[in-house]
């Protein structure tokens, strides 16, 4: 009978040790991310950046955006809807919307109430529905129903900011723009490819350091890397194709 308490004590001790082993890497990652988030990591050399994008291209020569769209207008609408939402969530709502309205004229005819109903599964759907109809009206009134190819004209549309404009310019018109979202901001700072305290700082740095031959698809490579490999909570360092170049002190492989 005296042995049972000893076994229980031994089990508790093993559990405590296991917990300590688990908690330590988590704390290390959190501390490393805090440091990385303020652009404190060393910036990569030109050769390192060239090698990273060479690997990205080799693994995925012509990456595509994951937002479903039919044309430049539906791409614009999809990106507006994707603000503070996932691409997967947007893609569930837009097929029905785009089946009814794939041009600004059809979107205005559909009306805000109907658009709101069709996109109600997306966060902030009321504001987004209002912006989608308003930008459609402005496209008709000022651009002949066409999506403009200039950043200034795009950013003048309701619900369109710099990131949205960059995505449209890149995907719809093939411009070498880099739209810095939460994934690219994290990858830039965490790895050291392009460090900065704000998305605009990271974008500016990427514009400066990404070799010209890689700029066309740089946005896609970085966002996919952040979405599927260099994820926020527990990056998959063991699967990372640039882990040996990465400057993040919390990485799990060397």
Could you walk me through the main structural features you see in this protein, from its secondary elements to its overall organization?
- The chain starts with a helix and ends in a 26-residue tail after the last helix.
- The protein is 62% helix and 0% strand.
- The model is unreliable at 17-22 (pLDDT under 50).
- The protein has twelve helices and no strands.
- With 254 residues, it is mainly alpha-helical.
Count of alpha and pi helical runs: 12
**Global Rg:** 23 Å
- Spans of at least 5 consecutive residues whose pLDDT stays below 50 are 17-22
Q: Major beta sheet, specifics?
A: none
User: What is the CATH C level class of the largest domain, in words?
Assistant: Mainly Alpha
Q: Say which CATH homologous superfamily of the largest domain is assigned.
A: Hypothetical protein, domain 2
| Spatial separation of the terminal alpha carbons | 49 Å
In total, the number of domains comes to 2
Principal-axis shape equals elongated
Helix % is 55-70%
- Strand fraction: under 5%
Classify the fold: give the CATH topology of the largest domain: Endonuclease III, domain 1
Q: Helix-strand pattern, N to C?
A: HHHHHHHHHHHH
Rounded average pLDDT: 89
The total of beta strands comes to 0
CATH architecture of the largest domain: Orthogonal Bundle
**In terms of structural class, how would the helical and strand content be classed?**
mainly alpha
